Amino acid sequence: MKHPSTALSITLILLSLHGTAHAGPDACTQTERQVWYCEANGKFYTLCASQDLGANKGYLQYRAYKGATQEFAYPSAPRHPFGLFKLDLLPRGAALRFKNGAYDYEIHEPLAGSTEILVSKNRKTLARLSCSDYMDSLTLTSTQDFFSRIGIYDK
């Protein structure tokens, strides 16, 4: 698998949480599974899902780490992703979107090229983080099927 990195500017982070997980290729806990990750600008970004994530139970959480310190989590407390995350297929890739307060986040995974994390406010791009190491998973049929079952992707 290809692994590009994406870093999120700390100045854009409104909520800061400190976790015990170590950032790296799998910063999810032993009771979670890693759905996606990216390294960019010295930071690590990941999507962790509970092992029991299904249509009506479990959680999905986006996290940002600098070293072993968790700097950001969305949602701040783990909860079911329905209504929080949305996967869209693009002509040449996929985008996972979520909104945290006034900020819009988009993980853009093209079929060819590097994955990016975009942060915007009022439709103005504030940060564009290009992943240097990443997991291509949002464009996989298995991920799309999984996201469809949990209600964050409409086929």
Task: Give an account of the 3D structure.
By secondary structure, this protein is mostly beta strands. Helices cover 6% and strands 43% of the residues. The chain has one helix at 141-149; strands spanning 32-40, 43-50, 60-66, 69-74, 85-90, 93-100, 103-110, 116-121, 124-130, 133-134. The strands form two sheets. The protein has a five-stranded antiparallel beta sheet with strand order 4-3-2-1-10, with no helix packed on it. β1 (32-40) and β2 (43-50) form a beta hairpin. The longest helix is centred in the last third of the chain and has 9 residues, at 141-149. It is globular, with a radius of gyration of 14 Å.
Core attributes:
disordered N terminus; 6% helix; 43% strand; five-stranded antiparallel beta sheet; globular; mainly beta
Compact overview of the structure:
By secondary structure, the chain is mainly beta. Helix content is 6%, strand content 43%.
Helix-strand blueprint:
Elements: E1 32-40, E2 43-50, E3 60-66, E4 69-74, E5 85-90, E6 93-100, E7 103-110, E8 116-121, E9 124-130, E10 133-134, H1 141-149
Shape designation: globular
Low-confidence stretches: 1-23
The end-to-end distance, rounded to whole angstroms, is 25 Å
Number of distinct beta strands: 10
Strand content: 35-45%
The number of distinct helices, counting runs of at least 4 residues, comes to 1
Radius of gyration: 14 Å
Which class of secondary structure composition applies to the elements? mainly beta
Write the element-wise H/E pattern from the N-terminal end onward. Answer: EEEEEEEEEEH
Sheet with the most strands: spatial strand order? 4-3-2-1-10
**Overall pLDDT confidence:** 85
The profile of the biggest β sheet is: 5 strands, antiparallel
| Percentage of residues assigned to helices | under 10%
